[in-house]
Amino acid sequence: MLVDTHCHLDAAEFDGDRAAVADAATQAGVGLIVVPSIERANFGAVTSVCRDYRGCFAAYGIHPMYVERAMEADLDALRKTVLREQPVAVGEIGLDRFVEPRDDLRQEFYFSAQLELARDANLPVLLHSRRAIDSVLKQLRRCRVPGGIAHAFNGSRQQADEFIKLGFKLGFGGAMTFPRASRIRELAATLPLDAIVLETDAPDIPPEWKAGARNTPDQLPRIAQVLASLRGITVQEVAEATTANAAAALPVLARIH
Fold first, then answer.
1. Is the pTM above the cut of 0.90?
2. Each residue of 78-92: pLDDT tens digit?
3. Among 214, 233, 253, residue whose Cα is nearest residue 24
4. pLDDT in tens, 101-128
5. Cα(223)–Cα(221) distance, rounded to whole angstroms?
6. Domains in the chain: how many in total?
7. Is the separation of the CB atoms in 197 and 171 below 8 Å?
């Protein structure tokens, strides 16, 4: 069994064939899918997807690219949703220093508030840290949460080691499958295997063989095969290790798989 630790199955890109996409993932051997929210407006959609499709489990949070239209009342809504739904994590949360224009202080405010919420709820977090890894690590040292996953990791080995020290796993997916992605592939090949989890980020970050197309969670086995090839191990070893790692990062999953 494989675990897709980050898949936006609620996204509009799947409105026309969501059931078929979910079924294809199951048939491919993807037994569990974590579905993170991006803002208050899609908390309900995430809840519905995770109710309607077996093996899907929710995380709730406000993504840094959506804080521009967030209100402080959304944090209260998030807290109530977390208490009511008992998700696997708080997420997708973090910082983004890539998209322009942006409000860095506003991102910091919502990230900090959501880390505190996760700490108080004793929940791990799903982190977005595009071009902001050191700033994210600084916040994590200030507000200690019970680990989680650094989604779509694209940092240095030193930064990877810092996340690991703080109890985090590192998410690898489609970006790793491109031969030119030498730094990511080197990390995937050399990091401790017990630090790695797999993800698709579908419908985004498609693998090399679907470049420019919609990504789907049934691509995870081929992504796992790339990781196996990079490390010189079997895909079964990758599946067993990354599934165990996902359960360690997100303890609710450990009670399920």
1. yes
2. 999 999 999 999 999
3. 214
4. 999 999 999 999 999 999 999 999 999 9
5. 5
6. 1
7. yes
Token readout for 157 is 């080995």
CATH code of the domain in which 83 resides = 3.20.20.140
For residue 89, give the nearest of 109, 114, 54, 55 by alpha carbon.
Answer: 114
- CA-based Rg of the chain, rounded to a whole angstrom? 17
Nearest partner of 3 among 199, 225, 158, judged by Cα:
199
Q: Let me know: does 233 contact 218? Beta carbons within 8 Å.
A: no
Q: What is the mean pLDDT of the segment spanning 137-149? A: 98
Domain span holding position 202: 2-254
DSSP 211-227: TTS---GGGHHHHHHHH
pLDDT at 185 over 80: yes
> In sequence order, which residues have a C-beta less than 8 Å from that of residue 240 and are 6 or more positions away?
none
125-130 and 148-150 strand pairing = parallel
Residue 48: both structure tokens together: 């519905």
